[in-house]
Amino acid sequence: MSPAPSPEATAGRPAPLHVEEMWKSQAESLRLSLLAGQEGFRRTIRVADINRPGLTLAGFFDYYRGERVQVFGMGECAFLSTLSSAQRMEIFERILSVNELPCLILTHGREPVPELLEMCDRFQVPLFQSQWETARLIGEMTAYLEERLAPCTSVHGTLINVYGMGVLILGASGIGKSECALELLKRGQMLVADDRVEVRHKPGGILVGSGHQMVQHHMEVRGLGIIDVWKIFGVGAVLKRSLIELVVYLEMWDPKKEYDRMGLEEKTTTLLGVEVPEIRVPVQPGRNLGSLIEVAALNQRLKQQGIHSARELNDRLIQRMSGPSARG
């Protein structure tokens, strides 16, 4: 296994997600309205999981997950309407007194009981109202939080989608990563990011790469400068994000080095704790790197489907050499 590309990547947890950032970025898409507790906008959302209080409203706090965003659906709101004002005040005090609590959201456009407005202002816990139904809100909110809170790293390289496979091209500065990407673009492949690739680790060991929003769909090519791939090659030549399923490391040809000529050895590199298949391609004049990477992507797709061409050929050779004709 190859070591992680530490000289070219800076990894870490994402920046803290405050409720204010969530509100500003998702208010329109989630149809959120602020009802109370604006003083708590600096509270931090630390986990992507969403909690529905359920039995907590009945006083059962043994499994209350106060560090999660709390969502009150039709059932919770209907149950609260059956309680007296004193009972609601008692329950809300216990729910809202958790320091890690980020915020509360009411779904279906339900109006809060007066005690909830009062207590959210008192404990400085943001209270939102969404016009969406509960299941849809939870699904969209979870997807947003998983994306925003995922472990991330920034890699110096180029990410190209080749025949539907995300290929991360790495190598020393000036080795020809962008030029290789240009050749692939001319052959109908799609650019995701050039120079700086933002990589996020999604649940299930999935790596997703994208470009920085400010320079998305742009490339820096030595001798040409900055080019706009979308305007030159068309909308079909760019992608906003892609899975990372293969790493291609470009290195200068070393005549003293033994390169793998059979492909029997499986090499991997590690990004954010995830092992990704890696191939090292020596660079020298006359080699068509675009064609090599296209074939590498297709070969990797075959491996994912359980077809390993080099091993199959090796097995056939071994069978031939150990068969009766070889012994006779």
Short description:
The protein has 328 residues and is an alpha/beta fold. It has helices at residues 19-26, 74-80, 85-96, 114-123, 134-149, 177-186, 229-233, 289-304, 309-322, 324-327, and strands spanning 9-12, 17-18, 32-36, 44-45, 50-51, 69-72, 104-106, 127-130, 152-162, 165-171, 190-202, 206-211, 218-221, 225-228, 241-243, 246-252, 268-271, 274-283. Strands 1, 9, 10, 11, 12, 15, 16, 17 and 18 form a nine-stranded mixed β-sheet that branches. It has a five-stranded mixed β-sheet with strand order 3-8-7-6-5.
Structural features, described:
Helix 3 packs parallel to helix 4 (114-123). Helices cover 31% and strands 29% of the residues. It is of the alpha/beta class and 328 residues long. A hairpin with a 2-residue loop joins strand 17 and strand 18. The strands form four sheets. Strands 1, 9, 10, 11, 12, 15, 16, 17 and 18 form a nine-stranded mixed β-sheet that branches. The chain has a five-stranded mixed β-sheet with strand order 3-8-7-6-5. It has a two-stranded antiparallel ribbon with strand order 2-4. It folds into two domains: 17-148, HprK N-terminal domain-like (Udp-n-acetylmuramoylalanyl-d-glutamate--2,6- Diaminopimelate Ligase, Chain: A, domain 1), CATH 3.40.1390.20; 151-313, P-loop containing nucleotide triphosphate hydrolases (Rossmann fold, 3-Layer(aba) Sandwich). Residues 1-10 have low confidence and may be disordered.
